[in-house]
Amino acid sequence: MITDEQFIINGLAGKKTLEGKINTPGAKNAVLKVLAASILFSDEVTISNVPDIEDVARMLELLEDLGVVVEKQDSKTYRLITSEILTHEISTEISKHLRASIVLTGPLLGRLGKVTFPHPGGCVIGKRPIDFFIEGFKILGADIKDTGSGYEIKVKKNLKGNTIFFKNASVTATENFMMAGVLAEGQTIIKNAAMEPEIVSLGEFLNECGAQITGLGTPEITITGGSLLSGKDKIYHTMPDRIAAGSFVILGALAGKKLEVTNCEPKHLESLLYSLLSAGVKMEIKKDSIIVYGRDSKLTAFDIKTHEYPGFPTDLQAPLAVLLTQSDGQSFLFETIFEGRLNYLETLGRMEADVKIIDAHRALINGPKSLKGREMESPDLRAGLAYVIAAIIASGVSTIHNVYYIDRGYEHIDKSLRAIGVDIKRV
Ligand code: EPZ
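^ thats the input. predicted complex w/ EPZ below
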C-alpha cells in the first residue's frame, strides 16, 4: 500500500564504520517475470527465494485478479495454481503501479487468444513506450484496438510464430515475446534480443517445464511453439538481485570498514566490479559473496556509460553517481538507455555534491565533495536508494519521503542497513 512513510538517516559524515553481512534478496526483475509466466502453465508453478517487496505483492494481486490461486508456503515460497484463468482483462487499478505488468500480455494472449490492458503508467525515468509490444503482437498475427483507455488485443485462433527485430534490446519486450512464442504456432525468432541474466534464468526454467527455447543470453532467441507447460514437481529458485548486490557493494566502498554482501552472483556484476577495482576499491570476490574494505579503498574518478547487459546497468547508475561525488577527479556520466534518469542529480547537488547535468543523457561530476544531509523525495526506486546511500555518507540528518518506491525493489532495506551499523529509522 502506498503510504507516506519516511526514512530518517543520521549520516556518518564520511566515516567508514559499516561492518558485517548484508544479504542479497531474490531478483525483482527475475521473479516478476516468472510470476507472469505462470499463465503459461496448465497446472501450477512453485517459486522460492521470493523477495518481500511491493512489486511482488502487486504482481500476485494481478495474478489472483486473473484467476490464479496463490498459496504462500513460507515467507519466501509461493505455489501458484494456474489451471483456471478466468479473465483476459489486466486490472488497471493494480497495473498502473507496476510497469512490469506489461509482461502479462504475451502469456495471456497466447493462452486465451485475447488480452486487454491499460496504457502502462510511465514513470519518472522516461516515457516508457510500448511500441515494441504493439508491433510484436501485429507480427505474430494479432489485431490491436486502442480503446482510448488502453488496448484490446485479439487473435483469430492462435498466435503465429514469426521473426521480430527489436530496434532496442528491450528487456521486457524480449521476455514478453519469448513467453508468447511458447504458445504460438511454429517458430518465433527474436532478433536484437536483450541478454540480461534474468532473461536467461526465466528461459531456462521454462525449458525445464517443457518449452523449447534456444539462444538465451545471445542477441537471437528462437522459440518453438507447443502447448501449455507443466510446473508439477518443479521449483524456480529466484536468482540473486544483481542490482541490490551492486548497490550494497557501492555502499561498502563509500562507508564500509569491512562489509560482506552475501548470496550474490559476482559474475552478473562484472561491469561494476571492474570499474570499482580500477578506481581503487579493495574487494575480495568469492564464489557467492563480495567483501568490500572501504577504509583501504582509494576512489579515483572514472567515466561511466550505461549499456544493455553485459554493459554497465542503468539501474546502478544513480547509486554509482553517489560514489563518483566522493571520487578524486572529474567523471563523465552517459545514461544511454533512458531519457529521464538523471534528474536525481539535482537533489545530490542540493546536498552540495559538485554535479552538472549537461542534457537528458549526460552529466559531469567532480569530487571529492562532502555531502550535507537534506530533506528528499525519492522519484523512483533506484534514485531512492541512491539518496539512502548519499544520506548515509553525508553529515547531519536526512529525511527521505516516498519510501514506498524504495520498498518496491529493496527488501526490508532499513532493517538490513541497521544490522550493519546505519542509523536509520522508518517513520
Ligand atoms: C527493464 O525495463 C527493467 N524493468 C528496468 O528496471 C531496467 O532499467 C530496464 O529493463 C533496462 O535494463 C523490469 O525488468 C521490470 P527496456 P524495460 O524495454 O524492459 C525503450 C527497475 O528499476 N523501449 O529494456 O521497460 C525504452 O524506452 C527498472 O527495476 C521502447 O522504445 O526497459 C528504453 O529506452 C527500471 N519501446 C529502452 O527501450 C518499447 O516498447 C530499453 O528499455 C519498450 C522499450
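The radius of gyration is 22 Å.
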